[in-house]
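Internal ticket #5521
Category: modeling
Description: The requester needs a full-assembly model to guide mutagenesis choices. All entity lines are attached below as received. Residue total reported by intake: 266.
Assigned to: D.W.
Attached entities:
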Amino acid sequence: MVNSVFDLASGCLHTASIDQKLESTQRASELLARGQIDFSGGGEPLPITETVFPVFPELVDPRQLPRRNVGSETGRVALLHALAHIEFYAIHLAWDIVYRFRGLPAGFYKGWLEVAVEESTHFSWLCRRLAQLDAQYGDLPAHRGLWDLATDTCDDLLARLALVPRTMEARGLDVTPGMIEKLSKVGDEESVAILQRILTDEVGHVALGSRWFKKVCYERGLDPETSYIEFVQRFLKGGKIRRPINYALRKQAGFDEQELKKLELL
Ligand SMILES: [Fe+2]
Ligand SMILES: [Fe+2]
């Protein structure tokens, strides 16, 4: 039986159950391996406001979040919980780019479906680590802003590619090495191993975002570098990306040196 990629995406986006979200993502991965997914057609997507998130974690302003000093176990749990939350939203961000933007080549959908599967794996690793520390996802409050840029960019694929993979996910490349260093200093090797594997995958996600961003720019007759800066100025608070910028990882992920220097000067 052949399944529509848009129905599979909907199976994750339109349920409140974390287990169902993960199961439907896993099922999509198996169907993809068997070549049983149809990437065509699909009609009209439901509006982004129909996306369903679980009741827990409670979503709060980031200033109300617990401190994440990794020197204590409580602080490590807070950090791992915050990262699990990012990965949980990343599953939705990957599925939503599949679900919302129709009529694109099969390669586009396959690429982002694979990202959704990797994000769900990242989420599961962090949940397992939290369980080892007697905690679980939903125990603590979490950042409420992670869906904002998805909503802001729901009607334009180019804006979505600029602001989600090339901004939100790229931010992970800037900050994860520092977290790995801190966790390593306190001897939390289990968490270090997880973050290292996540970081490797995230370079791939940003690179995929860069490839499609540039492709869509060329199709629209736009210069990718200028367009990206325009999106940053239009959508981000203060009109700039946060510092520090990890040049080495971002270059592996499809940014170029000149572009990064310009971004740093904004
Ligand atoms: Fe991830
Ligand atoms: Fe990612």
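Resolution: model delivered.
Comment from assignee: The chain has a mean pLDDT of 97.
Ticket closed.
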